[in-house]
Each structure stands twice: as structure tokens, then as C-alpha cells.
Amino acid sequence: xxxxxxxxVDLKLKYQRVLEISVIVSLALIIVAFKxxxxxxxxxxxxxxxQELVNVEDVVNTKQESxxxxxxxxxxxxxAPSDDVLEDIAIGETELNVDEQVSxxxxxxxxxxxxxxxxxxxxxxxxxxxxxxxxxAIQKKIIxxxxxxxAGVQGRVFIKAFVNEVGxxxxxxxxxxxxxxxxxxxxxxxxxxxxxPGKQRGxxxxxxxxxxIVFKLQ
Length: 218
Hints:
By secondary structure, this protein is an alpha+beta fold.
């Protein structure tokens, strides 16, 4: 059997009446507000200070380049199956005959070592080699390079000449150069010059001598 609520504490009995009274009071307040306060005064707000014009510049969209793709990975080598099949190999007899006489193999050919006599050039001798006609003869054979003329290159080139017993220059090296083609021109002039051979104890010998070549613009 269901229990009945006490009518004094039952809120649902008074819900309808409380709702009607609330609606009536709200409507009365709205009517009073529209009747006695029909309009509202607006307050004007003045902004002080001059207005500044802002120039808006067009921004050019930059082109973003995408990074190149990574290089492909190298393929892994795979050994291909081989179709070659080894055929049967016939093995001969391997029996050793002790009584058989074996001749000794021939001796290896002898390699004759040819010793090359390297030419020895003296550094200091009793009579030093001298160019026939003097240094002036070498200077007359100098062809001044056009590059050196245009660049204004001047100076002194030292050449080491290797003179043999008959006075011919067999080799020439640059000891100190100035570049711009002057070194090569000095070597060529020395190689074309005939020398008076150097002597040691009255005998003509091979001598190396240092020769200065002057390059000067006139």
C-alpha cells in the first residue's frame, strides 16, 4: 500500500500558484519600466587627437621551394643462380715410380744488371765554364714574354746550367724565378748558348754553374 504525502509539505500543490504570481509580477515590472523610462540619453564620446593614415603595402608572396627528394637507395646485389654444372673430372694415376731417373731442371737465366754510369757534374773546379761571348750573348737571346711586358714584370732569374766536356748545356734548371714566362725564356736562352768548358787539372770536365739572367723593361 502506497504512502500518501502530507499536504503541508507537498511542494507540487503550490507550484502552479507560485508560477502564476511570478509571471504577474514580472509583467507588472516591465510595464512600469516602459511607462516611466521610455528613452535613454546617449552620451557622445569624442576621440581626441588626429587620425593617422596607415599605408598598407602589398607583400609579395615568397615562393617556398620544397627540398629535393632523397636519392634512391642502391640496390643490394643478389647472386644469380648458376646453371653451370661441373662435369666429372678424370684423375690420372698418382703412383710414384722410385726407380725412374729424373733430370734436374735447367738453371734460371741470369739477368745481367747493367749499371748506368750517372754523369757527375762538379760544383767547384779550377776553371769555371763561361758562355762564349759572355753574359751579353745570353741576354741577346732572351725573348721578353708579352705577358711580362704588359704586367710590368722585371727582375733577375737564376739558372743552374749543366755544361759537359765540350761546352754544351745538357740540362738547365730554375733556381729562383720571377714568373710570367720569364723563367722559361731564361732556360731556353741558356740551352741555346755555347760555353767554354770547365777544366780541372788541365782536363775538361762536366760542371754545373749558376747564371743570372736580368729582365728589365726599357
